[in-house]
Description:
Layout: H1 3-13, E1 17-21, H2 22-35, E2 42-47, H3 54-63, E3 66-69, H4 72-80, E4 88-90, H5 97-104, E5 109-112, H6 115-124, E6 130-135, E7 157-158, H7 162-172, E8 176-180, H8 190-204, E9 212-214, H9 232-250, E10 255-258, H10 262-265, E11 269-280, E12 285-289, H11 298-302, E13 308-310, E14 318-324, E15 332-340, E16 347-350, E17 371-376, E18 379-384, H12 389-393
Parallel strand pairs: 1-17, 2-3, 2-10, 3-4, 4-5, 5-6, 6-7, 6-8, 8-9, 9-10, 12-14
Antiparallel strand pairs: 1-11, 11-12, 11-16, 13-16, 14-15, 17-18
Amino acid sequence: MNTKLLLKIADEFGTPTYVYDSEKIKSQYLRLKNAFKRVKDLQINYAVKASSNISILRFLNNLGSGIDAVSIQEVKLALSCGFKAEKIIYTPNGVSIKEIEDVSSLGVKINIDNLSILEEFGNKNSGIDVCVRINPHILAGGNSKISVGHIDSKFGISIHQTPHLLRIIKNTNIKVNGIHMHTGSDILDTSVFLQASEILFDLASKLDFLEFIDFGSGFKVPYYQGDSETNIEELGDKLSKRFNEFCSAYGRNLKLIFEPGKYIISEAGVFLCRVNSIKQTTSTVFAQVDSGFNHLIRPMMYGANHSIENISNQKDVERYYSVVGYICETDTFATNIKLKNVSTDDILCFKNAGAYCFSMSSNYNSRYKPAEVMLINNTYKLIRERERFENLLINQIDIFN
Length: 401
């Protein structure tokens, strides 16, 4: 992104502020779509949980995207932004049967990952098509907290429970129109996706009424210059060929679905913070910024690496800094990294801040959630106002006043 433009945004809207580049969102969406152009029926479903701003959702809807939703609230957000119900897949985990039925009444696709819930839902709603989420028992992902396809995961129906699954389908007479998997996030090796696909193809061959296969996502994005990423073009070439072969053997064309979140929006976003102070201790120089894990928790929660640049001072000498926040607990964004000489009031730019950043923010320490801005058509627009003090009180009830 243009540095002068980012500094102008920080000056106009204050900090901290998230900024999203709509052109990068579009190019990532089209890159994935183009990688699988040999598949006759392809649908890309954006994972709302990555970033749920309605302007981002509407932009993706205009591109032709579908939606991966994990809550009834995400489903309603998508519907309110113009997404057609048939292009929304609801994939919850651990929710009540009532929420599943409430979502089902909205006409979206239902994806169930629990045998007991599938049986209960099937007995009560045998006329409604469902998708089932499979746990392929593949350990993959950037770290244990984002690896969701292993044997001890709470997600999905174990592939080893296939006989139980088939028995429930038969006994309830429910129609399974899709199967789904998601093994984790930040998966670099394309062979992981290909290995898991064979597990899904084997199960799919045992089901008679399939309309689609959803391969989830988990593609790795680069977090710093020279970092590796999933070779989408290689995966597209190999998986497209195998998928088309399976459809031919199955006897009809199925829809191929992916549900990327981070891949679509991570690199499109940056996070702007202002330096409150410089603090020198016996061993460390801290750059203390006007934010913390209340706004960007990924480094503390996942050990995520967000490269940081001092965009106020790009020509000075480099020094080592630990970048920390203003929260009353340890909220270290980066330790002993090189930055151009940092002074109070400088603007630091955190890269790869589009996914799972604002959406995981909170009001911890009674701090306000930041503003959001989108770059679009060679200009920028505010897409979320910074919170004010009134936002902290809006749902509270003072019983002593």
